[in-house]
Amino acid sequence: MQGKPVRNSLVEMIQMVRPEDANPLGIAFGGKVVAWMDMAAAISAMRHARIPCVTASIDSLGFLSPIHIGEFAIIRAQVNYTGKTSMEVGVTIDVEDPLTGIRKRTTSGYLTFVALGQNGHPVQIAPIIPETPEEQRMYEEAQRRREEKLKRRGESI
Amino acid sequence: MQGKPVRNSLVEMIQMVRPEDANPLGIAFGGKVVAWMDMAAAISAMRHARIPCVTASIDSLGFLSPIHIGEFAIIRAQVNYTGKTSMEVGVTIDVEDPLTGIRKRTTSGYLTFVALGQNGHPVQIAPIIPETPEEQRMYEEAQRRREEKLKRRGESI
Amino acid sequence: MQGKPVRNSLVEMIQMVRPEDANPLGIAFGGKVVAWMDMAAAISAMRHARIPCVTASIDSLGFLSPIHIGEFAIIRAQVNYTGKTSMEVGVTIDVEDPLTGIRKRTTSGYLTFVALGQNGHPVQIAPIIPETPEEQRMYEEAQRRREEKLKRRGESI
Amino acid sequence: MQGKPVRNSLVEMIQMVRPEDANPLGIAFGGKVVAWMDMAAAISAMRHARIPCVTASIDSLGFLSPIHIGEFAIIRAQVNYTGKTSMEVGVTIDVEDPLTGIRKRTTSGYLTFVALGQNGHPVQIAPIIPETPEEQRMYEEAQRRREEKLKRRGESI
Amino acid sequence: MQGKPVRNSLVEMIQMVRPEDANPLGIAFGGKVVAWMDMAAAISAMRHARIPCVTASIDSLGFLSPIHIGEFAIIRAQVNYTGKTSMEVGVTIDVEDPLTGIRKRTTSGYLTFVALGQNGHPVQIAPIIPETPEEQRMYEEAQRRREEKLKRRGESI
Amino acid sequence: MQGKPVRNSLVEMIQMVRPEDANPLGIAFGGKVVAWMDMAAAISAMRHARIPCVTASIDSLGFLSPIHIGEFAIIRAQVNYTGKTSMEVGVTIDVEDPLTGIRKRTTSGYLTFVALGQNGHPVQIAPIIPETPEEQRMYEEAQRRREEKLKRRGESI
Q1: CB atoms inside a 10 Å sphere around CB A148
Q2: What single DSSP character describes residue E8?
Q3: Is the pTM of this model over 0.80?
Q4: Which of D39, D50, D101 minimises the CB distance to C100?
Q5: What count of CB pairs under 8 Å joins B to D?
Q6: Does D19 touch chain F if contact means CB atoms closer than 8 Å?
């Protein structure tokens, strides 16, 4: 199976935080933010695999600062690493102040997706090809995370 | 007030069409699609004006082909033209087949936004500066649409 | 195919604007308002055609004043004009103050719908019959809008 | 306080049942249908009282037949009876087949609303004036229901 | 058909009231609260019958006090009584103050569900077996309500 | 500050998976499932702290098998461990087949929440007191996870 470059899997999504996305403190609900990240990551995984993909795990996802009603959440996703049937997708959220344009990183995390065949069983996907030094670094870090995870679980994914 | 280039106002948003977005025929509801376009256009208007903006009109918006459940809708918006307190935002939707990656234009339209000051009255915005030939063409077409519209209505906006 | 009177296609819908419909300024989102109009217009089109109909275009839709949380939005739709397979639906929104009952027009627009057969291709619909002078005027104006639009596009719909 | 006729409180709302309103059997969820009825009834109560009103009880609400995806639900509400600070609102739903136009009654029920003053305590409302024989009949039946309910509870509302 | 104890049908659900659940007064919409109760009751009915069930009626449901944004709504449901194809489900809501943990009963009601076979017609369900004195009391009260209702309607359900 | 037992923080929530929760494959969206878990975990954190809490991170969350439309998702949360201002909440989802009652574990994960004071800064919370051997085991595992995480990040949370 022929490899595909990381840039094929890039996804950019933007959301203005609305009252319906907020908790009683006036900031976006964690659950809503993760739902946006999962959507962006799922599209990224499918842009790489071109096969239906489902979320297998959320491995590490940190909320560094809250996102307020009215702010823009810029969600970006890309495939960092591929196994045989699964891939790690890195997702970040930058928040943009609508009145000043100032942006800052508020959330980042890693999600693992699995490609599913017609019968609902995992199917093989194309390997990802990191091209830039940054992509190469992300690939190696993802590989390390995967190994640590396998070691912790003592089982293959 | 200093002008700002069109590229400052670019917005890209992506949505996977879900069952909750669909009508009984299994295709995305017109109303849902317009809601996405309005959101992207509002963010574009605010990226230009850096002032809260509200939709003043939807001037012409055509649905060329349906978007099915599971497909990706790629929504793009940019400010085409600015008046004193209002601006025309052009929005397009390309649909991407998740399994083949093939994209085609399904929707395009023009929305007008007005910037609102603290008191809820329209306030002046920076002029847009078209830089590329394409941006220049969009600017002129938007200007022509505006003049036709003013003529049809026989009133200023 | 036998014609049907405009009154067959009348639709009235009412919505109380809730926090979940509002933008950060506390007024109903343009996109949400259009979604209501599209829904009412789709029902109007189907009440005339009695065939599944989808939105083909939003031709001109103006937001004259904002609708606040707690206010009632009264959405009315009717078929103004029919072509062979498409029809123009006129939609208005009056906002009603819940405490005083005072109403005013806040939004009006025209949407075009197409009737779709089993195979997804446009199918012929019954002609609309304007009966009152007001309906006759709406019919003629819609006809004029259609001709202008065809002239602008240089193509048939 | 001067009475107001029942016709002032009439509300008509229409909803096309969408996949997002349906349960796994493809018919509208009971909870969703009641939410529509409660919304229509709340608007009816406020059209009569012109004071913010909240649901106090749902007294008897029967689902005679299911509403399927794609069908139109026509929700109608009117104030049947008024006490000092509360009122009974009658609500019905007729379902309309989009392809044939055939309608049938699927749901009807009675809801009680209370008008709330600034401090959140019940406040007096204008008496309802039944004008037609049908309205008179509804008024008397509502009065009888109220008396039975008070007797069953052994307490005033 | 073998009977099943009430405890099999117990359901506990919890919801934090979010801005999207609230009306313009900042308290949970009646319609939203009923939708939660209907969901819990439907699950309770299906836990007893193990057959798809739909809401047949909401017989008596009182809102004793409002639920504010940020509060926890604890919804509990259980089958009180079974007929041949239908059952009465009792539902209560206790509201919990998130900062003090103080709870109070805000809503209670009875809903009737019918079990549906493949063809959409009512099918027989197992009888419920009340075990505790409280369950026995609920059973008898439900039976009395059912008899009164049949008498009022002069028809069998 | 006086400690509180784990059982104070227990939360049980149940959701029937509806078409609006599903992806195009007919199974619950990962993002939706995480939103439910985040809600349950937030309530659990607040039941322990009795202070507003926000999601700080999702540390490890695995989707073992899909949840289909119509199935019941039983979400359980409890505080496993407390630091000075943050706590780890363990969340599991068991899926219940509505027709057979058979349940199986489909999802489990750990989320970290931080208690926020009036000024939006973290505030001290009561220590959790594990009572049962199982709670003691969860506490120690959470402590180990926290130490590994701090080591990986080389920073305190």
Answers
A1: 13
A2: G
A3: yes
A4: D50
A5: 18
A6: yes
CA angle C149, C151, C157 (to 5 degrees): 55
| C19 at E interface, C-beta within 8 A | yes
Q: Which subunits sit against D, judged by 3+ Cβ pairs under 8 A?
A: B, C, E, F
CA dist F18 and B19 (Å) reads 10
pLDDT at position A153 is: 73
What is the pLDDT at residue E157?
42
pLDDT above 70 covers a percentage of chain E that reads 97
**Once rounded to an integer, what is the mean pLDDT over residues F58-76?**
94
Going along chain E from its start, the domains and CATH numbers come out as 4-156 (3.10.129.10)
Q: Percent of chain A scored above 70 by pLDDT?
A: 97
CB proximity list for C1: less than 8 A, separation 6 or greater: C124, C125, C126, C127
- Report whether E70 contacts A29 (CB < 8 A): no
Are residues D116 and E52, on separate chains, in Cβ contact within 8 Å? no
CA closest to F26 among chain B residues: B19
CB contact under 8 A, E98 and F13: no
| ipTM higher than threshold 0.85 | yes
Q: Are F14 and E16 an interchain contact pair (Cβ–Cβ within 8 Å)?
A: no
Distance CA E44, CA A92 (A): 41
**Helix (H) or strand (E) segment spanning residue E129:** strand E128-129
* pLDDT tens, position by position, A40-72: 999 999 999 999 999 999 988 999 999 999 999
Q: Inspect the structure and tell me whether chains B and E have 3 or more CB pairs less than 8 Å apart.
A: no
Q: Which of A18, A67, A68 to mutate to test the interface with C (most CBs of C within 10 A)?
A: A18
What pLDDT sits at residue E120? Answer: 86
Q: Chain C within 8 Å of A69 (Cβ-Cβ)? A: yes
Mean pLDDT of D58-86: 95
Asked if C32 and C16 count as a contact pair (C-beta separation under 8 A), the reply is no
Is the distance from CB of D127 to CB of D82 less than 8 angstroms? yes
Q: What is the mean pLDDT of chain E?
A: 93
Contact between chains at A35 and F37 (C-beta distance less than 8 A): no
SS3 F64: coil
The subunits that touch chain B, with at least 3 C-beta pairs less than 8 Å apart, are A, C, D, F
pLDDT at residue B120, as a whole number = 86
